[in-house]
Amino acid sequence: MKIKILLMPLFIVIIVAFSIWLVYPAFSNGTNGAIENYIKLKNEQAKLIELQGKSENANNLSIQFSALSEKDALYAFIPKDMKEEEIINSLSSLSSASGLLLFDSTISQPLKESAIEEVQVTNETKNLFPEIKNFKVEMKLSGSYDKIKDFLNSLGKFSRNNNFNTLEISRSVSSGTEETANPDTLLVNASVDFNVLKEAKLNESNISSSIFSSSKLETKVISDIKNQKNANSFQLNVDQKGKSNLFQM
Amino acid sequence: MPNINLATENVPRGSSNSIGKGLLSVIIILILVIVLYGALLFVNSQLSSKTKAVQDEYDLEYQKFLSGNGNEIIDFKNRSDVAEKIIAENKSMAEIMSHIESSMLSSVYLNSLKYDKTSKTISLLCVGDNFQTVAKQILSFKQDNYFSAVIPSRNSIDTKNNNKLNFSIDLVIK
Could you report the predicted ipTM of this complex, rounded to two decimals? Predict the structure, then answer.
């Protein structure tokens, strides 16, 4: 009888202790209780569903991208490579088409690779994408005002993005004083910025990009480019190559 | 020792029985708590294994996504964003020239024109007939809202050029 009387409070104490010490922590302990594990599972499932959605969107976008014939306009507007030879060829073709004499041109390289990498490390962690790099093309031309205007117009509509950094148009004084100089012969000294943008790669930092949230490829920018630029691209081919005497014409 | 019973009626001897019932209830509760603990451990292990399976599937899907054709899409997106920004910022040289042309007086001509993108300034070296022409030319540029500032500077008579007036004006584009 006395033992019976003692057993009940003892069991109650055991139940309370067991509940506090083992059962409740198994239910919720802030890290790996049943509640936390359930929430974690739901979060992981949501992440997986989101990723699957993105993956499906990426496939749809890829199909649209492959079928998009006009994408070349964007890649011509800001190319992946410098393509200096195309710039020289285009400037020469545009100036001669306008009736101007192009007599000097210099293409500067963008910043040295090591310096760029340092800048990119900070920029890319911030922006998650490669940064656009500008490089200057300096040129000197001569011709009449109308031809210069025609050239500026053509260069403005040139398929590759370019932006005048500086432009100087002055009377040619080579044959006398400024006042007696022929007004039909003007000198142009210009510095034009061209740009190049390295190919962006999908990585852990930019995987959450908003583009994968939609299954429709946004191509408005291509229309904007086509409104401003024409399809001017001057083909450059190497006709003959190979020479036995390097110093002979 | 004499047996003294002060009770006036028979008292039922049920207290040991109720203690037994209470003890039974407590034992049942204890068993239920143990069962609950076991169930929680089972649910926890099930949740953990399911979470692990989902994580594994996620990793697999993630690697598949990274190695898939997302590169061209992300590059297209980045290039489009950059192009959009450039298009918005670009100033057409032909447009700038047409504004200068439309504001130039017929009695004034240029000796030189310098455009600087950084300062958004066009520096003009002009030649006119007299100071009144200079004043009119300044006013004409000011009447074009394309320019946010018209800054005249030196005006001087050029004796070598039929006493024409050389003057310079800086135009700041909006």
Answer: 0.79
